[in-house]
Fold this sequence. Notes:
Layout: E1 3-6, H1 12-23, E2 27-32, H2 39-43, E3 47-50, H3 56-65, E4 73-76, H4 94-120, E5 126-130, H5 137-143, H6 149-169, E6 175-180, H7 197-210, E7 218-221
Parallel strand pairs: 1-2, 1-4, 2-3, 4-5, 5-6, 6-7
Helix pairs in contact: 1-7, 3-4, 4-6
Amino acid sequence: MTTYCITGANRGIGLEFARQLTADGHTVIGTARNPDAAAELRQTGARVEPLDVADPGSVHALGERLASEPIDVLINNAAIFNDKAARSFLEVTPEQLEETYRVNAIGPVLVTQALAPNVERSGRKLVVHISSDYGSHDTASRSKWGGNLAYRSSKSALNMNHVLMSNELASRGITSVAIHPGWVETDMGGQGATLSPTQSVNAMRAIIDRASTSDNGKFFSYEGHEMPW
């Protein structure tokens, strides 16, 4: 079976990935900032590893612990949305910007740096970044969006990081894709969202299962369509 490593697997989309994948017999390494509070993740049968994606030391330690283990699919899922109430860029604080960038944009780079050797040694050789349509320049421009600057721009930065990393990972036989999961009813997405975690993860798994080298560097919606940058 396939070995998956999922960051931020203790809640929301990450937890649903862990539930579905372990139920299907796959090996799941799920990370959480506080493993002691990750009871639901443990109940899935996943192996729980401590990880704070914003802490380089924590990421390095994870890499050391997993050094000898192939990882078929790395899912960079951990993210925060701490400026949800900011309706204007004038309301965003430096602290919100810094924290959001550390988790949403820098974290996936650090984790991919640390675990790329594990992915390269696997059979599947796939990196997946859970992004957002909020990170689309094209959509923001056409829709005249305002507000949530920290979150939206962090996902845009993630998209660029994904493209640049994918260009280099290709030479190691690794495919990298970014996926917009849709508006999902989680702590982050809130009530009234249009998708359940089950629906979103089912759809994203279909993309992950069929992803090939020809998809390297692309940005997909959960429905499988290429997203505008």
